[in-house]
Automatic annotation (TrEMBL):
Assigned EC number: 2.4.1.-
Family, per entry: Belongs to the UDP-glycosyltransferase family.
GO molecular function: UDP-glucosyltransferase activity
Pfam families for the chain: UDPGT
Keywords, sorted A to Z: Glycosyltransferase, Transferase
SUPFAM superfamilies, per database record: UDP-Glycosyltransferase/glycogen phosphorylase
Superkingdom as given in the UniProt entry: Eukaryota
Organism whose genome encodes this protein: Selaginella moellendorffii
Name the record gives this protein: Glycosyltransferase
InterPro entries found in the cross-reference section: UDP_glucos_trans, UDP_glycos_trans_CS
Length: 470
């Protein structure tokens, strides 16, 4: 009925327009839509034009496309987001702040709309990277929910920044020293190499300044949803988080949250379909999948060492290499590499990652340690070979290798500045052989246990499932 329609819950959802933030909020949106929510997603104009067909197709494949509408606002162009470059980080931070006025105007128009088919927005779910959302929702008079796309461990570390500054542990001067941070509540000791990359920056760096600002936001936000599950990071971490923000709940992995359905890819770029047919021709448990995500780049010198190492190994692999993701490489070099490894390897521009990780031929994942990739790898029971690049990925690498013991890392992580160190082909070959060989059986046992916990968490009666039902 019209009255029931107007009383239906209706959430406005605002992601940062990058793949790593859009994807989990898209999955959260369809999980809420499957539970009767109307969802209105705010998308930056260029991003909406570029991705609308793929997003609409993704939602329709779950049978919940009708519960989601899209609105556009001026904002950040995804092509401008490069968190490894300080000037780009500054542009990113400025653009985030400039989105406040158009988003507020859009919400106000929605509240005033007299439309029996679309009820007014009853809550605003925003990415934690928008520091102004609480101010907007207070003025409009609707509840605010923050969504954190990274780990609970990352939040605890960010909230410890004032203490770390006071003790002189940041900015980090040398990541190679044998010292651990032992005073962050809820976390095991943190080696200096595991601290985020911008912990080496000055306090005027926008990435570092953003961490300081978010620490205050967590303490004042009514509800915080985290794309994680308590069985992964541990009760101590989540209790420490709730000491900071009492209404904190884990709802992940969100990409598995639709009951009775298989996890789906939500890439906003065209995926190469050849990879799955190629995988089907490989032996079970034989393929190394390589992807460094949607933002990270690789130097040409490092690419040459990786590519030569793969040639020497002669092991089956799939490598997703985005255009312009290898700095300084000529297209001819990549084409030559593709031809050299054609008999045992496949190079694509983008791949259906979830499908690849779930495929029985896939044995391991060489990853940049983005949080989405970690959750997808864990849920698929695939060990990880860590190559962290930006943001909190060093911390994620530490969790994977030392805390959960489901992966390995390279020696450059313990150098003064890992980005300035090229890992030679000999080390690459040695580490990959260990990672793919019989010596890694303990990694596979550990990740299998975590995979089972992940699927229990999102099943009826599981921790994340019940949290989302609140």
């Amino acid at each position: 009925s019209t009255g029931a329609r107007r009383l239906a819950p209706h959430a406005a959802v605002l992601p940062i327009p990058t793949q790593g933030h859009i994807s989990p909020l898209l999955h959260l949106s369809r999980a809420l839509a499957s539970r009767g929510f109307g969802i209105e997603r705010k998308a930056e104009q260029e991003q909406r034009n570029f991705t609308s067909t793929r997003i609409d197709s993704f939602m329709a494949s779950y049978g919940c496309g009708g519960g989601i509408r899209f609105e556009t606002v001026p904002g950040i162009q995804a092509s401008d987001v490069d968190l490894a470059v300080p000037e780009k980080r500054r542009m990113f931070s400025e653009a985030v702040m400039e989105m406040q006025a158009p988003v507020e105007s859009l919400l106000i128009r929605n509240m005033a709309r007299d439309d029996d088919l679309v009820p007014p927005v009853s809550c605003f779910i925003s990415d934690m990277f928008f520091p102004w959302s609480a101010e907007v929702t207070r003025r409009i008079g609707i509840p605010e929910v923050k969504f954190w796309t990274a780990s609970a461990s990352c939040v605890l570390l960010e909230c410890a920044v004032p203490q770390m500054l006071e003790k002189g542990d940041i900015p980090v001067q040398d990541r190679s020293i044998e010292k651990c941070i032992t005073y962050v509540d809820g976390l095991s000791p943190l080696p200096m190499w595991s601290l985020p990359g911008d912990f080496s920056a000055n306090d005027d760096d926008p990435g570092f300044a953003g961490k300081c600002a978010r620490a205050k936001i967590f303490a004042t936000t009514s509800w915080v949803l985290i794309n994680s599950f308590e069985e992964l990071e541990g009760s101590a971490a989540f209790q420490a988080f709730r000491d900071i923000s009492p209404r904190t709940i884990a709802v992940g992995p969100v990409f598995t949250m639709i009951p009775g359905s298989e996890p789906r890819n939500s890439a906003l770029w065209e995926e190469d379909s050849e990879s799955l047919s190629w995988l089907g021709k490989q032996s079970p448990g034989s393929v190394l999948y390589i992807s460094l995500g949607t933002i990270a780049t690789l130097s040409f010198d490092q690419f040459k060492e990786f590519s030569e190492g793969l040639r020497l190994l002669q092991r089956p692999f799939i490598w997703a290499i985005r255009p312009k993701s290898v700095t300084g490489m000529e297209p001819e070099f990549l084409e030559c590499f593709k031809e050299t490894v054609r008999s045992f390897g496949l190079v694509v521009s983008w791949a259906p990652q979830v499908d690849i990780l779930r495929h029985p031929s896939t044995a391991g994942f060489l990853s940049h340690c983005g949080w989405n990739s970690i959750l997808e790898s864990v849920a698929s029971a695939v060990p990880m070979l860590c190559w962290p690049c930006v943001a909190e990925q060093n911390l994620n690498c530490k969790l994977v290798v030392e805390d959960w013991k489901i992966g390995l890392k390279f020696s450059n992580m313990t150098r003064s500045d890992p980005r300035d160190v090229v890992v030679a082909r000999d080390e690459f070959v040695e580490v990959v052989e260990r990672f793919m060989g019989a010596d890694s059986e303990h990694l596979r046992i550990n990740v299998k246990k975590l995979s089972e916990e992940a699927h229990r968490a999102v099943s009826r009666g599981g921790s994340s499932y019940e949290n989302l039902e609140r």
